[in-house]
Amino acid sequence: MRKNLSWAVHGSVFYVLSQWALLIILAKLGGPSAVGRYTLGLAVTAPIILFSNLQLRAVLASDMQGTFLFSVYAGVRVLTSIGSLVVIGLVVFLIDFTAEQAVVIFLIGLAKTIESGSDLVYGVMQKHERMDLVGLSKAVRGVGTIGVMGGVLYGTESLTAAVVGVNVVWLLVLVLVDVRHLRRVAEIPRLSLNWPGLASGLWATHMRRLSQQALPLGVVSMLISYNSSAPRYFLEMYHGETVLGYYSAITCFTVACTIVPEAFGQAALPRLARHHVEFSLDYWRLLTKLAGVALLIGVVGLVIATVFGPDILSLVYQPEFAPYSHILVMVMVLGVAESLCSVLGIGLIASRRLVQQVPVLTVVSLVTAFTAWWLVPNHAMEGAVAAAIAGMGVWIAAYCWVLRIPREVSARRRT
Questions:
Q1: Distance between CA 319 and CA 57 in Å, rounded?
Q2: Which CA distances in Å does 168 have to 108, 114, 137, 151?
Q3: What is the pLDDT of residue 415?
Q4: CB 374 within 8 A of CB 386
Q5: Which of 93, 83, 105 is nearest to 38 (CA)?
Q6: Which of 114, 160, 182, 409 is the most exposed place for a label (fewest CB within 10 A)?
Q7: How confident is the model at residue 412 (pLDDT cuts 50, 70, 90)?
Q8: What secondary structure does DSSP assign to 115-163, as a single string?
Q9: Domain boundaries, the chain
Q10: Distance, CA of 353 to chain centre
Q11: Is the pLDDT at 167 greater than 80, yes or no?
Q12: Do the beta carbons of residue 235 and residue 376 sit within 8 Å?
């Protein structure tokens, strides 16, 4: 378990920092407007992609009884990924984006679709407690992404060309690294998915059952993404790409709070699921430890941001970011809340409480969107962070309430 956690942390830390490095490169080479355009693409595509992913990685990793074959998971992932690209294309066509915005948004959606293939392989590795291979894949993808994004952007000064390069890197990692890991660990030979069989009645039934089981998680992922994106929508609408760029760059500091608890939670998910099946008190002990780690790291980050905020922003981005150090302090409060929500969410997945998350996230998204609509027009970035914190507060309270109810009681209530 300790080795698995170590690989999970190191791999996730490296990969998330590489994604953060992308925004740093954009800020230094393209300025806040380039950051705003890139993050607008993420905000538009993320809810669609996350819904189509159905959190199949978590479902596969916690499927201790082998309810579905890997080919069923893969079949569902391929079909939903195709559907997500179609939806993104329609969104780009129907909404009044500029030509460059439209191209960047679609290319980011394509990259995230490629990433979803790697994500499913990570579920297999996670189930077999081979987080070392997940960490290796993320490290390779992170290094390649940083190199290509920085090199192409510096040479061409084109965000579109840089995102094309990211697509190429992620596709190569999927084919040359992740697929090889899949064959070795899960002993799945080449072309073993039996695509003609997937169209048969039995396979169609299995894929429909899996989709129905995972649908609440897909809805939850979409709502989580909308909850995060809602302040960005209002910022871009009322204040433009440049302000959105400042906000998006500064909110990346939440990873300082969330990255380690999220990595620990993903690595501990299979064990949490086993403890819950066995009705063991170790489920609650492990979940409490994860929450304690999240809280401790968050408090340390908040103190550092309060004392060294202007210097950190000037060093990481540019001196023009320093006047917004008060936003950084608010963002670190948000990071503490996000990390606690992540841990509690892992606890819900491990206990297979999938349906309960939908009404919780619906309320949270409505609270965030309403607060952002109310505050962002007059308070810009301060209002956006405040809206996100308000939503997170409701989220934590609701998750704690759901977890304290015995599963059999909540099941009887649904019937």
A1: 40
A2: 12, 10, 15, 14
A3: 44
A4: no
A5: 105
A6: 409
A7: very low
A8: HHHHHHHHHHHHHTT-HHHHHHHHHHHHHHHHHHHHHHHHHH--HHHHH
A9: 2-414
A10: 19
A11: yes
A12: yes
